[in-house]
Amino acid sequence: MNPTTESLGRIDAWLDRLAGETDQARHSAEFTAYLVAMSRFWRYSQANTALIWLQRPTATMVNSKKRWAGLGYTLKAGEWKNSIHILCPHFTKTKDEQTGEERETLAYFVTGYIYALEQVEPGPDAQSLTLRWQTMGDHHGALYRLLERACARLHVRVELSLDLPRGLEGTSDGRSVITLNGHASIGDRAQTLVHELAHEVLHPTALRPQFTKREVECQAEAVSYCVLTALGVEVPNAPQYLALYGVSRDDLKRNAQAIHMGVKRILEAVEAVSQAASAGVAPGGSDAEDGRAA
Ligand SMILES: [Zn+2]
Known about the structure:
Bound molecules: zinc ion
Number of domains: 2
């Protein structure tokens, strides 16, 4: 079978399987495992994240052969035949006959070939593959300040309040203001901030009615889980994604796409403010082939 057709079929089969999973705990565990993959491969499209995970569930980092070479790594002998297949979209420019406007439309996919960290070996000039922002687990103060700067980059204001109703850790109004409980520890505030920022990024007032209340909370929890995991923060209890249990494959896909968009927007902002603070190289696919959303 043509590898591109095979990749598209793989994603469909996975969505069908997940939508058809009748055991609630297994469904949640599988979705959580997929979110861990998203916390690693968020630079790729949502479809490619799924493809990487489905083909190599243990992968922690992937790159094209060219990108690995740029980082000082070479492919181990024989590994060229164990490549991970991803989809690389190709766009064509079309002109709208009525408005004369030029726009890009997806024409077709070709297959891109990437390799996981365990398939390569470091050369003498291999670069470090861990970025400082990915190791924030034990540095709550620094984590909070980094997230605050990421919020500013996303034009979201963060305020502290000492009189939020009891039990409420934070709120977001969908109009770019987040209020956090000023009595909470800085570590707890950081975690709440990610959840509320997910709402701000994904659910501005105009868009909130498109999702059910359960979906909105599920997306914010999932984004928060991915973002914190990517930052190196251990999240003790993976939330149960019950809102996605027993829904159709189209609903699953819609929610997975929204979660991916939230993770990507927040982590792009985190990386940008972190790089502005200390110029560094970003490992992880930013080759042409991971391209735009597949
Ligand atoms: Zn919420």
